[in-house]
Amino acid sequence: MPIVTLPKIKHVRAFTVRGGGADYHDQGEGHWIDDHIATPMSRYPKYRQSRQSFGINVLGTLVVEIEAEDGTIGFAVTTGGEPAAFIVEKHLARFLEGRSPTDYEKIWDQMYFSTQYYGRKGLVVNAISGVDLALWDLLGKLRQEPVYHMLGGAVRDELQFYATGARPDVAKELGFIGGKMPLHHGPAEGIEGSRKISPSWPICAQNAVPTSG
Question: Same domain, yes or no, for 129 and 196?
Fold first, then answer.
């Protein structure tokens, strides 16, 4: 079989998008995800009502585009906003431009270890994941096959999903196997908060047997 040479990567671009997305993206006021959802910051009453109040949406959405020499573009969406976009274009792009998209393993390795002195987790890993996903998208388009083929093939005939949202009944109507509801109250609000979730919680807690370890 003849060896097919794929076009090399010409350019890497990163953009920030505001509005829309999910949990950590920049949702507008009035969206259910910002309506008194219990978070680790709920321990502070000032930041209990709105996730935006403590800045969960401050970074916004990151979109990464990787363009090949023939004009084919792979893209991906993640979080990280302007700081992650800066990392992608000013640091990570050097490991992709001029390279073959088939070098994805080495490219990932170089991105990860070159950023270790300020990375290893959080924002930097978000940026790396955006580039990696866009690279796989590009490779799939160039090879004209779905990414799961390149990862070894399908292992099941269908995928099942649950939906996170304020309306699990709607999730069921749409065909999801279940719904995950974000809670309006949590441990930070003490027994009263737990009672708002489940009136029987204090009774169960009082009757619970302590465990060691």
Answer: no
Which two structure tokens, joined as six digits, stand for 28? 């507008």
Using CA atoms, how far apart are residues 70 and 155, in angstroms rounded to an integer?
Answer: 32
Q: Helix (H, G, I), strand (E, B), or coil: what is residue 92?
A: helix
Question: How far lies 91's CA from each of 14, 16, 24, 133, 165, in Å?
Answer: 12, 17, 24, 17, 36
pLDDT, residue 22, reads 61
Q: How many residues does the chain have?
A: 213
- Strand 9-17 relative to strand 162-164, pairing: unpaired
Nearest to 24 by CA among 68, 57, 62, 64: 57
Note the pLDDT tens digit of each residue in 90-117: 999 999 999 999 999 999 999 999 999 9
Please say whether the beta carbons of 34 and 50 come within 8 A. Answer: yes
DSSP letter string over 174-210? TT-SEEEPPPS--GGGHHHHHHHH-TTHHHHHHHPPP
CATH number of the domain enclosing 96: 3.30.390.10
Distance (Å, rounded) from C-alpha 63 to C-alpha 81? 9
pLDDT given at position 203: 46
Same structural domain, 82 and 142: yes
Whether the model clears a pTM of 0.85, i.e. scores above it, the answer is no
Domain-located, residue 33: no
Query: Taking 70 as the threshold, does the pLDDT of residue 135 lie above it?
Result: yes
Domain end (from 103, 122, 150): 150
